[in-house]
Design brief:
single chain; 312 residues; alpha/beta; FAD/NAD(P)-binding domain; 2 domains; five-stranded parallel beta sheet; 17 strands; binds NADP nicotinamide-adenine-dinucleotide phosphate
Length: 312
């Protein structure tokens, strides 16, 4: 039986692994279906990880993390997890290869995946002008004009964030009414440097070897091109929560209506011994430093849980 199973090997999972093993848990396995590092390894540049002052890619930032964990005894199983179950006493991790591992405690850190808007060039220019993270990439467009796509709470809140950094934000939405909360929409209409482009469908992001140069949009008045170097898409988010889904369709612990794991400030879920950390948990800031912090917090709680489990 494992003391602790960690599902996912991004910044949250790796930090949980570091703190759990260094904190005295001896039998800890991190189940990561690919190479450890998580989604930040797709980023060509990260500027906001504390203490890192030079130009560094996400891949380079994450490179030493698994090595540091292995030094303290973290085991990495390169396998996908199908599901985690609980029999009232301990957890069972069901693996895609058909085998299982029992564990006293589990930390899930499987992240989340932004949805694609589906316009031409979205994939080609992802990370080269097309972004799904204003906190990560907004600063690269300081004093410039950018486009934001979407009409939900996330798109509008991220447009506010960008409006404080950028000269102008075009908010491109496919309808003329918004999903976002009414008071958020009212504030949007009163923000001087946000221009609404409504009933508008993004068709193609334009660019060259240097990056994005514009966004072609179809509106009711015809086709227009917004000459922007940055396009931010916020058209919804899939939380990678399937590992918590049970055979009867219910989740192992309490979730929000949009699929995030509900945790308290110690990263504890509604089920004792089960923790969630990083982008998959409620109100996540979706940043590497925050995911790492969550992982550390969850591991410290798991150490205490395993200790009390073994001594009672
Ligand atoms: P993730 O990093 O998503 O890791 C989850 C891991 O779980 C993955 O490795 C995945 O393979 C694994 N996994 C999922 N399901 C399973 C399963 N069923 N079985 C086994 N393994 C599984 N943040 C910043 O702070 N600054 C930035 O500049 C920045 N830029 C970014 C740029 C890009 C292009 C992207 C995509 C993200 C950026 N972020 C940035 C956000 C940052 O990457 C995330 O907030 C952070 O990686 C979240 O960490 P996590 O550990 O919660 O999840
Ligand atoms: P969301 O509410 O699903 O909104 C997605 C937006 O993207 C919608 O306006 C949708 O248009 C648009 N869209 C979807 N697919 C598109 C496409 N292919 N092309 C162009 N536009 C597309 O997602 P979200 O904003 O991420 O919010 C998710 C949940 O979290 C919501 O329940 C939200 O209220 C909540 N949330 C709350 C807060 C808060 O309370 N502060 C903050 C953030 C998120 P349509 O409207 O036409 O469908």
């Amino acid at each position: 039986m494992l003391d602790l199973a960690i599902i996912g090997g991004g910044p949250a999972g790796l930090t949980a692994g570091l703190y759990a093993t260094r904190g005295g848990l001896e039998n800890v396995t991190m189940f990561e279906k690919g190479m450890p590092g998580g989604q930040i390894t797709q980023s060509s540049e990260i500027e906001n990880y504390p203490g890192v002052t030079g130009e560094i890619s996400g891949m380079d930032l994450m490179m030493p993390w698994p090595q540091q964990c292995q030094k303290f005894g973290l085991k990495h199983a390169m396998v996908e997890v199908d599901r985690v179950t609980h029999n009232g006493k301990f957890f069972t991790v069901h693996l895609a290869d058909g085998t299982t591992e029992d564990a006293i405690s589990v930390i899930t850190c499987t992240g989340s995946t932004p949805k694609k808007a589906g316009f031409a060039g979205e994939d080609e220019f992802f990370g080269k002008g097309v972004s799904t993270c204003a906190t990560c990439d907004g600063f690269f467009y300081k004093g410039k004009e950018v486009a934001v796509i979407g009409g939900g709470d996330t798109a509008i809140e991220e447009a506010f964030y960008l409006s404080k950094i950028c000269k102008k934000v075009y908010l491109v939405h496919r309808r003329d009414t918004f999903r976002a909360a009414p008071n958020t929409v009212a504030r949007l209409k009163n923000t001087a440097n946000i221009e609404l482009i409504l009933n508008a469908t993004p068709k193609e992001v334009l660019g060259d070897a240097m990056g994005v140069t514009g966004l072609r949009v179809t509106t009711q008045q015809g086709e227009i091109t917004l000459n922007v170097p940055g396009v931010f898409t916020f058209v919804g988010n899939n939380v990678n929560n399937t590992v918590l889904k049970q055979e009867n369709g219910a989740f192992l612990c309490e979730m929000t209506p949009w699929g995030e794991v509900v945790v308290d400030i110690t990263m504890a879920t509604s089920l004792k011994g089960l923790y969630a950390a990083g982008d998959m948990r409620i109100s996540a800031s979706k940043q590497v430093v925050c995911a790492a912090g969550d992982g550390a917090t969850a591991a410290l709680q798991a150490i205490a849980y395993v200790d009390s489990y073994k001594n009672h």
